[in-house]
Amino acid sequence: MAHSWNLSANLFGFDEKETRGEVLFFKIFEVFIVWGTIYLAWMWGEYILRISDVVLPLGIAIYVDVSFMFGNSLPLINAGLISVLVILGFFRVTRYAYLVAFFLLHLQYAARFTLGEIPHSANMFGMIVLGIGLAMVLFQKPAYRRRFTIGFTYFFLGLGYTLAAFSKLIGTGITWSDGRHLWMWVNEKGIDAFAKSGVLEFNALQELILSEHWIATAFLAIGLLSEFVAFGVWWRRFRMLVMLAIFGLHTGIYYVMNILFILSMYELVLLAFPWAVWLNWLMTRSASSERLLQPLVGFSQRFA
Question: Distance between CA 250 and CA 211 in Å, rounded?
Fold first, then answer.
């Protein structure tokens, strides 16, 4: 219990012995990082091809004119470079690959979102790529790299959601959770759907929210509370409960607002549950699972 409330030990646990389950889980998590980076790089690259002006500079675009990315094939070339770099990083060809990929991905991000609409999942995923990039450069021991990446991700995940709650309270006050706000947002989304399909209809959850003011208010209040306590993921004893609450928040947003933060949902599923513990249990309790998973563990250790 010595590390019960120690923040560094809860996030990183550098002094703890690493299990085979942790080694295998991290490689699975790294596959998610590689896939997500390639997915965003190409999706953003294809969108940038349709942009011609910088409306809202953000990130590096505040200091560098990213309009050089418009009207040519540079976004696709950049996406290809990012894809190659994360694959090189995955196979440990060079320890700097992920960090360079992060900077190029940020350039892609800055060019893509110059029109002003920025999804939260893009920012959160970018922090994961930065985390593994820093881990590969700062640490020599593979175990330290793995622990830093996961701990870094938990830290900024908790910080990001909690700051989102504070932003709502600073901007609007406690009245942000007034159910009338949710009524307005639901109807706005209904109009968007009507514009696309020509049919105005609400699902069962939306109809329930629109039926009573107190239900809509309770829905927003629970969502605000889920964000406010997100920093609880920094401590292992609260981690699963808090992350399931955040997952529920995203599920509610999807069914009520039709907004899907797909990368955030995958990230929450990977980090909410003790997959490493379960994998380790499988390998120690089942001979067949041991034979099945051991080659994967060997691969993970080889490219650590």
Answer: 22
pLDDT reading at 200 higher than 80 = no
Q: Which of 28-32, 74-78, 163-167, 255-259 has the lowest mean pLDDT?
A: 255-259
Q: Residue 209: what residue type?
A: I
Exposure b/e, 34-59, CB count within 10 A at least 16 = b: bebbbebbbebbeebeebeebeebeb
- If you average pLDDT over residues 79-108, what whole number do you get? 97
Q: How far apart are CA 286 and CA 292, in angstroms?
A: 10
- Residue 202, number of CB atoms within 10 A of its CB: 16
Contacts of 268 (CB under 8 A, 6+ apart): 243, 246, 247, 250
Residue that the structure tokens 């929210």 belong to: 209
pLDDT tens-digit map of 156-172: 999 999 999 999 999 99
Q: Which helix (H) or strand (E) holds 92?
A: none
Name the pTM for this structure. Answer: 0.93
Residue boundaries of the structural domains of the chain: 19-138+286-304, 171-273
